[in-house]
Write a structure and sequence with these properties.
By secondary structure, this protein is an alpha/beta fold. The protein has 12 helices and 13 strands. It has 2 domains: 171 residues, Rossmann fold, CATH 3.40.50.1970; 184 residues, Dehydroquinate synthase-like - alpha domain (Dehydroquinate synthase-like, alpha domain, Up-down Bundle). It has a 7-stranded mixed sheet with strand order 1-2-9-6-5-3-4, sandwiched between helices. Nicotinamide-adenine-dinucleotide binds next to helix 3, helix 4 and strand 8.
């Protein structure tokens, strides 16, 4: 497989996403032009660091360049103010300055946290994303959302801060646990469902190759997701409108994650079941055809993702969705499908139909 490159076009803050089968072990793959820094501080965790730091460090270092690391503990519970403070402390001890580049090496947790540290340390220092989970490769490393959690809610404190480059090395997915990989595929399916019917059809035909983590198939899928995400981010960087399309299945999904207790279902698993509920509402609204809903369900089943939302009770769902931060001006906004490959954001949906959809999750 050849390397692929996508540009996220944001004027002077444009940046490349480079996708390759084994970027850091091959020569002259990572273009020097994208690695302008002289000093890199890699932020990673105690799971990913031991596997990939030395390979990445070798590739980043060359005469006159230095590479150091900051290791944080693994887990969503560490996407916190305390971990952020410990990163600032280490940056200060290491005398990092505006010519230092932070390299986020890990999944979405590391990317969001290291990204927010880069956005805020000395009012912003350069950032490179090296995503190591499928979710991070197709979603969180692209588009500049960075954040930490607050006890009151996920991603409550954050900033939009674009990286200088995103390096996606597919071989890093080789060590990803199966469940995490499949959860990442939920976001892959999401892109097809909301904006790319041809990609959705491709996924239906190639899902077994993806599940086998075939590099050609993965490279194509990651490229399609990143270029679709780039289009959305270019059109609406700070989510004042169409970027919210990326939340398809997420309002229901967040209710599932919160209702079951965070960590019980992975985010992608909750999004899969959430997409089925949002899809059902789209069918009842007279937009999505039943056969299209069936195709979505079939694809998620083939991946091995849950398609039946847990039966937490209709009122509990409504309550949990009411607390979701996608509630704007007191109105619940949902992403619905007009058809496979076309979505829209609306707060003008029928409450009766939403209640009907949620009758399927009564206890
Ligand atoms: P994660 O970062 O917790 O990674 C999942 C697990 O896989 C962790 O245990 C991690 O250490 C491990 N891991 C990572 N790479 C590995 C590899 N190559 N081999 C083996 N193990 C590996 O979870 P995630 O799903 O990547 O990200 C979830 C986070 O991303 C959430 O905090 C979510 O809020 C955030 N997110 C952000 C955006 C955004 O736009 N910024 C979008 C979606 C999600
Ligand atoms: N993951 C949603 C977004 O980047 O907007």
């Amino acid at each position: 497989m050849k390397n692929r490159q996508i540009i996220v076009g944001l004027g002077s803050r444009s940046y490349p996403i480079i996708i390759g089968p084994d970027l850091f072990r091959s020569e002259a793959i990572v273009d020097e032009g994208d690695l302008r820094g002289r000093r890199y501080i890699v932020v990673t965790n105690d799971v990913v660091g031991p596997m990939y730091f030395s390979t990445v460090a070798e590739r980043l270092s060359s005469p006159g360049k230095s590479v150091e690391k900051i290791i944080i503990p693994d887990g969503e519970q560490f996407k916190s103010q305390e971990t952020l403070t410990s990163i600032y402390d280490q940056l200060i001890t290491k005398r990092a300055d505006r010519s230092t580049t932070i390299v986020a090496l890990g999944g979405g947790v590391v990317g969001d946290l290291a990204g927010f540290a880069a956005a805020t340390y000395q009012r912003g220092i350069p950032l490179i994303q090296i995503p190591t989970t499928l979710l991070a490769q197709v979603d969180s490393s692209v588009g500049g959302k960075t954040a930490i959690n607050h006890p009151a809610g996920k991603n409550m404190i954050g900033a939009f801060y674009q990286p200088q480059a995103v390096f996606i090395s597919l071989e890093m997915l080789g060590s990803l646990p199966d469940r995490e990989f499949k959860a990442g595929l939920a976001e892959v399916v999401k892109y097809g469902a909301i904006m790319d019917e041809a990609f959705f059809s491709w996924l239906e035909g190639n899902i077994q190759s993806l599940l086998a983590r075939d590099y050609e198939a993965l490279g194509y899928a990651v490229q399609q997701c990143c270029s679709n995400k780039a289009k959305i981010v270019e059109a609406d960087e700070t989510e004042s409108g169409s970027r919210a399309l990326l939340n398809f299945g997420h309002t229901f999904g967040h209710a599932i994650e919160a209702g079951l207790g965070y960590g019980k279902w992975l985010h992608g698993e909750a999004v899969a079941a959430g997409m089925m509920l949002a899809g059902r509402l789209s069918v009842l609204a007279g937009d999505l055809k039943q056969v299209e809903w069936d195709r979505l369900q079939q694809l998620l089943i083939e991946i091995g993702l849950p398609v039946d939302a847990p039966k937490l009770g209709r009122n509990r769902y409504l309550e949990l969705m009411g607390y979701d931060k996608k509630v704007l001006d007191g109105k619940l906004r949902l992403v619905l499908l007009r058809k496979l490959g076309e979505a829209y954001v609306t707060s003008d949906f029928s409450k009766e139909l939403l209640v009907e959809v949620l009758s399927g999750v009564e206890q």
